[in-house]
Every structure is written in structure tokens, then in C-alpha cells.
Write a structure and sequence with these properties.
The chain is α/β, with parallel strands linked by helices. Helix content is 21%, strand content 25%. The longest helix is centred in the C-terminal third of the chain and has 13 residues, at 312-324. It is globular.
Length: 339
């Protein structure tokens, strides 16, 4: 058995640690979430709140956020018997999607508002299929905002509004699931970080679907995502590296975008690119020094990405600590800083 398998099999999440309520409904603000800090060199684990971040980082360090905005990627058929979860945009009209049908299988699904969705064939991997929107006489994004809802999983019991699935700085629509590591940041905390000399930068990576249902998970090698890194962010990264300060990615999506940038023969100039980069302990990190992320489920490839930052044994110990200290999992849960 490989050590990666040991990590994936080293813990299970008790039901009471599945966060089902946005943090601001549990606490005074988004930024009051707990944050476990893992020293990537020594494996030491300490407990903090996200609001302690200005004291944990050093002046000149750079936090890079994903400003992709979550779209309402869940649709229902006109008769409400079929659920469609959009997984990835191919063109304006064609998407990869998950289709949940409880009765007879349909290749043409009638949607609310008179539109329809045709199933064109298999997607990049099972159970994804390619679908095409038809009879929709407005931009697809406009249609989604009229009739769609945010994708939510079984641990979320309430239909929280779309705004609860956004970071405060989300501005470029495209993610079918929220880039959730940045969700807990408030404008007050951003200002405190800036006053402490911490630099802030942004990029966009449109996150695809992370779970297929039925205990099936995406193969990260079949999971391309589009991203764009502005010139000013690239220049700020170069400046930070030149001065020997840390680049801290807020979210695994940011890690994927920044590490993909280093593989480009010609640096991006704010243009959109696509990445299928799969990061694990065999991938030497070129750009990112630290990571702020949520707590990940045992079956996800995100755990493999953590092993690019530190020893696998350290992550196993840290996750056991998180369980003992009652940290909360998922997009409305607590955070983990590795640096």
C-alpha cells in the first residue's frame, strides 16, 4: 500500500463535523472561522482563528486569491423530476454535466422557461455527459441566473442563497462550485492584512465540479479548468520572490493556476489558458510557498496536492488533530494554513 493510500484512509469525518451553515450565521463574521496552522518544515500544529492571519504572516508576503464568481449551475427539468449539475463549460451552449434521472431516461430534457437540454454523448469520464442548450434566446449565464441554483451536497440542509456561495471579491462568473478557501475573508480582514504589510493579488480559475455523487470523484487528469493571471499579479509575484518573501495561495485552485503558469514557455499576459495539471508529492512546487485551504474529504485529490507542500505523515497527524479539536469540514467550514 502506498503512503498516499495511507493518507486517504487515515481518517473519516464524523457527521457533526460537516459544516452545513455559513460561518457568519454561526459566528459574528465570516473571518471568525478556526484555522489550523501546520508548519511544513517541522510538522508542528497550532490552533488559531483566521483573524490571527496578519500576525502569522510577515510584511512583504503575498496572498493570492481566486476572484472567480460562482454561477448557479444546478438546474431542474420543467417537471422537476430531473436534476442537472453543470460540471464544465465547453462552449457557450455545450457543457459537461451530471444528470440525475429517477424515471425513464430522456435524451431531450425540457427546462423551465421553454428551453431544452439535449444529451449529446459521453463526457470526458463517466458519469459525465456532454449536453447542449437549445431554444434559449438569451445568454446562457443570464438563463442560469433566472432558473438555476447553487450546487449543494447532502450535508447542506438549507437552500442558502446564491450570495452565500460567493467570496467577497468574486467578480468573474464561471465557477460551478465556489472557490471556498477565500470565502471566510472579510473586507475588514483584508484591510488589516494590508496595514500589516501583507500584499494582496488576484487571479481567476473557474472551478469545476468536485464530486459526482454515489461516492465517485473526478479524476484530476480529466478535469481541465480555465484560468487567467493578470500581468500585475505576475509582476507582484516576481517582486515578492526577488525579495525572498512567501507566496501564499488561498485555495487549491490558486495553486493549480500558479503552478501551471510556471510550465508555460511564454508567461501569460492576462490571457485565458486551460490547465489539466495534477499536483501531488511528485510535483516540485515552483511558485507557491504556502497554502490556505479548507479541510478535505478522504477521497479527494486535494489531499494529494497537500503532499506537495509537506510530509504526508505531518498531514495525517494534522488531520487527526483537526478531528480531535472539532474543526469543521467543507465550503462553510474551517481552514488550514500550511507554510
Amino acid at each position: 500500500m502506498s503512503t498516499v493510500n495511507n493518507l486517504h484512509q487515515s481518517f473519516q469525518i464524523p457527521t457533526n463535523l460537516h459544516a452545513n451553515t455559513p460561518a457568519e450565521y454561526r459566528e459574528d463574521s465570516r473571518s471568525q472561522v478556526n484555522m489550523m496552522v501546520l508548519n511544513k518544515q517541522t510538522g508542528e500544529v497550532t490552533d488559531h482563528h483566521l483573524s490571527n492571519l496578519p500576525q502569522l504572516l510577515s510584511p512583504g508576503d503575498l496572498l493570492v486569491f481566486n476572484k472567480s464568481r460562482t454561477i448557479p449551475a444546478l438546474l431542474k427539468s420543467e417537471d422537476q423530476k430531473i436534476e442537472i449539475r453543470l460540471a464544465r463549460k465547453i462552449t457557450d451552449l455545450e457543457w459537461e454535466a451530471l444528470i440525475f434521472q429517477n424515471d425513464e431516461k430522456r435524451d431531450c430534457i425540457l427546462l423551465e422557461g421553454g428551453g431544452q437540454l439535449n444529451i449529446m454523448g459521453p463526457g470526458s469520464e463517466s458519469p459525465l455527459v456532454v449536453v447542449e442548450f437549445q431554444q434559449i434566446f438569451e445568454p446562457i449565464l443570464s438563463y442560469l441566473y433566472k432558473y438555476g441554483a447553487p450546487i449543494r451536497y447532502e450535508y447542506i440542509h438549507e437552500p442558502w442563497p446564491m450570495q452565500d456561495y460567493q467570496t467577497i471579491f468574486a467578480s468573474v462568473p464561471g465557477s460551478v462550485e465556489m472557490p471556498s478557501a477565500g470565502r471566510a475573508f472579510s473586507w475588514k480582514l483584508i484591510q488589516q492584512l494590508k496595514k500589516s504589510g501583507i500584499q494582496i493579488a488576484f487571479l481567476e480559475l473557474h472551478a469545476g465540479i468536485s464530486y459526482y455523487g454515489g461516492n465517485k470523484w473526478p479524476n484530476p487528469k480529466n478535469h481541465p479548468e480555465t484560468y487567467s493571471i493578470p500581468v500585475e499579479t505576475i509582476e507582484l509575484i516576481k517582486k515578492t520572490k526577488h525579495h525572498g518573501r512567501k507566496i501564499i495561495a488561498v485555495g487549491t485552485t490558486v495553486v493549480r493556476a500558479l503552478e501551471s503558469l510556471t510550465l508555460e514557455n511564454n508567461p501569460l499576459n492576462g490571457e485565458t489558458a486551460t490547465t489539466d495539471l495534477y499536483i501531488n508529492k511528485q510535483h516540485p512546487l515552483q511558485m507557491v510557498d504556502g497554502l490556505i485551504t479548507g479541510l478535505h474529504e478522504p477521497d479527494t485529490s486535494h489531499l494529494d496536492l497537500l503532499c506537495a507542500f509537506t510530509e504526508e505523515a505531518y498531514i495525517i497527524v494534522a488531520y487527526q488533530h483537526a478531528l480531535e479539536q472539532q474543526y469543521l469540514w467543507h465550503e462553510f467550514g474551517d481552514l488550514n494554513l500550511i507554510f
